[in-house]
Amino acid sequence: MASKIGVYFDIQNIGGGLDIETLVTQAQEKWGDTTPVVKTVPVLADALDVITADITEKGLDGVLLCGASPRADADLYRLSVQVGHVNLREQCVLSYKNADGTVPDIRYGGAPQSVAPALLAIQARDYVNMGVVKLQKSEKPDPVAIAGVKRILIIGGGWTGLTAALEAVASGYEVALVEKTDKLGGAATVIPVGSPLASPWANKQPTNVADKIREVMGASSVKVHLNARVEKLEGQPGEFTAHIASAAGIVTVTVGAVVLASGWTELDDKYLAPMGLGKCSKVMTASRFGKLLLDGQITARRIAFVLDTTLAEDTWRDASPCASPDATPSAPENVNAQDEEKPFIKENLENIRHLAYSNAVNSVGMLRLANSVCEQTDDATQAFILYKNMTVPGIFERFYKKMQNRLGIMMTKADVTDIREVGNDVVVECKNTLLGMDFNLNVDLVVLPTGLVPTTAKDAVVEFAYRQGPDFPDMELFDGFADSNYICFPYETRRTGVYAAGCVRQPQTLDACEEDAMGAVLKAAQCIDSATRGVAVHPRSGDAAYPVFNFVRCTQCKRCTEECPFGALDDDEKGTPKPNPGRCRRCGTCFGACPERVISFADYNIDQIGSMIREVVVPKDFKNEGPRVLMLACENDAYPALDMAGMRRKAWSPYVRIIPVRCLGSVNAIWVSDAMSKGFDGVMLLGCKYGNDYQCHFVKGSEICSKRKENIAETLNRLGVQPERIEQFETAIDGYDTVSDLIDGFVDRIIEMGPNPFKGM
Ligand code: SF4
Ligand code: SF4
Fold first, then answer.
1. What distance in Å separates the CA atoms of residue 170 and residue 152, rounded to the nearest whole number?
2. Signal peptide position in this chain (predicted)?
3. Helix axis angle, 359-376 relative to 397-404, nearest 10°?
4. Which of 51, 309, 576, 726 is most buried, with most CB under 10 Å away?
5. In this structure, are strands 37-41 and 82-87 parallel, antiparallel, or unpaired?
6. CATH classification of 604-761, choosing from 3.40.50, 3.30.420, 1.25.10, 2.70.98?
7. Ligand 2 atom nearest residue 555's Cα
C-alpha cells in the first residue's frame, strides 16, 4: 500500500491542453501528506534522476506519472518503488471533445495552457485522483519462484518432435521424447524427397529425416521412449511430473515444460466418398499415393491430382436434413446457419473443416507428388493438377511456377463435377476450366486431398492430473487443435507450459513444422526461466503477482476453479481452491467470478478498482453537467485501440471515465454495483471478440463477462433500473477507427434514458 506518493506532470506531453498548475494545486490540497511531492517536469522521460532523488530524499514508496499512456516508454520507468501511470495524453487531452461535439485544437507538445476547457479539466482531475488511490491500494508483488527443471518433455517423435528435440539440446536442455509407435520419423519417413526446404525454394530437396533420427538417438541428453504414452502429467510449469507408460512399465520424469508435437491423423474417407474414395480402387488420397510411390507401386501413367472438393461439397449440400451416419456432410467453407441445423453436419463440422484447413499442405504436396512421379517414370507420366484454390504459402510460389513449366505436368483451375469409373479408366468431368472449355479427362488414377486432423481431436495424447479434467478443454472451440490463440500467441495451449507445434497446431508443410518446433522450444525455455523467477510467461510476461486467496471467507462455491481458463486451480475434497501459481496467467478471471470477493493480487484487486470508481466526482445535475459513464476496458486490445484513437484525434465524449482491466473476465459484478450506487449513469465493458472466432487473450474472458453482464442486467431490472445501462462491446486492437463512435453512441443512448435512478441516493 503506497502511502508516500510522488506525483509528476509531464509538461511536454499534456501541457498543450491542460492548466497543469491547477492540477498540481488540486492534488496537493486533496491528498496532503499522501503526496509529499507534486511537481511538473518538462519531459517525464528525462526526469528519472529527479524522481530517483525524490524517492531517496522524501522516502517515497510510490510514483505516479501523469502524461503519456503507460504503453509508451513503460520500460523506462523501472524504479525501486511502485510506479503508476495516469494516461492524460491519449485518453484525456488528445481524445477530448466538447459536450457539443466540437473538437478543440489541442496539440501535445504545445505551449502550456493557463485555462483548459472545463470538462477536460474535470476529467484530468478525476483521472489523477483515480491514479493516486490505485497506488494506495496496491503493493509490490513478491514472486513465488519454482525450481525450474531444465528438461523438456516432447510428445511425438515425428519431423516436428525430432526438430524440437535437437533444438532443445542445442539450447542446453535435456529432453524426454515420447513416441507412441516403435520408431521415430512419423509421416516424414514417407517423404524422402520433399518440396523445397530452403533457398531458392524452387527445387525438390531431400528431407534427410534419417539423419535427424540418428542425431536424436545419438544425443546423450535425449532419452527416447518408444511405444510409450504420457499416462499422467501433474504439477505445474517448472516442475511437472510426467508418468510415461510403455511395455517396460511406468517411469516418472520431472520436466520444466512440454512440447506437444503429436501430429495428425487422416480425415475419415467418408467425407470424400462423393468423389469416389472408398468406392473405387483407382481413387486414393495424397498421403496413400505418397506411400505407394515410395514403394515403387505406382504403375498408372495418367494421373489426375484433384485439389478441388466442390463435387463432394455439392453432394453434401444437396443432402437433405438427416440423422443417418451414412449421410454426407456439408462443405467446410459453405457451411451456413441452415446447414448447421442438420444433425449430421452439426456433429461433424469440426471434421469437415479439416479439408479446408489442409489446403495449403495439399497444394504444395500435390505439386511435390506430381513432380516425384514424373521423375520416377522418366517423364513418362502425365500429371493433371485440377484445382479450385491453389494455396502455395509465401515463397513456395517459386516451386509452383517451376512446376507450371515442368514437362508432364498440366495444371488448370477446374470445377470437378463428376468422377466415375468407365471401363479401365476413371473419367474426371471438368467444368469452368482456364482453357475456356469443359472437358472430360480419362485417367488411370485419381489422387484426392488429405484432410489433416490433429491427433488431439481423436485421442487424449496427454492426460493432465488437473481438477478441470485430463484433456485440453473446449476442443470443439478449436476444431480439435491444441493451439489456443493462433493470432497473438501461436504455440500456446490452454495448459500453461504445454506448447503445440507442427500439424497438431495447424496443418503445415515440413519447413513450417521446423520453424514451429523452434518456436515451441523457445517458449518452453522461456516458460522454465519464468517459473524459476516466479513470474508469468505470457501474455503478462514478467508479472510477479499471482492470486492470493483469503480461505477464511471462502464458501467453497468452486466458481473460481471451474471458470479459470487455464486449469490453474485444483481443489480439495471440500472444494477449497488449491492454487498452482506456475500455471496461472494472471488474468483475474477467478476474482471476477468470486461472489465472496476473497481473491486478490497484490497490485490488482477488487477494492482497488472499486476505490477508483468511487473516486470519480459524479455530478448530481444530469441536465447541466451531463451524465457519467464508466468504461472498463480490456488492457490487451481495447486499451491500445483507445490509445491509437486518441493519437489520431478520434475524440469521444468527455463524460466517460476509463479504467483498464486485465481481461473482461476479471470484471466482478461488485464494480458495476459500485458504479451504479455512486451515481454513474451507464457502464461500458469494452473487450475482445468472443465466440468461435474469439480473440480474447485469455480465451474465454469476454464470453464469461457477457454471461455475468446478463445476470447484472437482470438484477438491475428487478431494481427498476434499465438493463441497457450496462453494455458490452467488442473491439480488436485495430478498432481505433470505431471505438470513439461506440462510446459516443452509448453516451447518446444514456442521455436519452436520463439519469440513473440511484443518482444522489
Ligand atoms: S488469474 Fe486467471 S489463470 Fe490465474 S488462477 Fe485466476 S483465473 Fe486462473
Ligand atoms: S469463487 Fe471465491 S468463494 Fe468460491 S471457491 Fe473460489 S475463492 Fe472460494
1. 12
2. none
3. 40
4. 309
5. unpaired
6. 3.40.50
7. 3
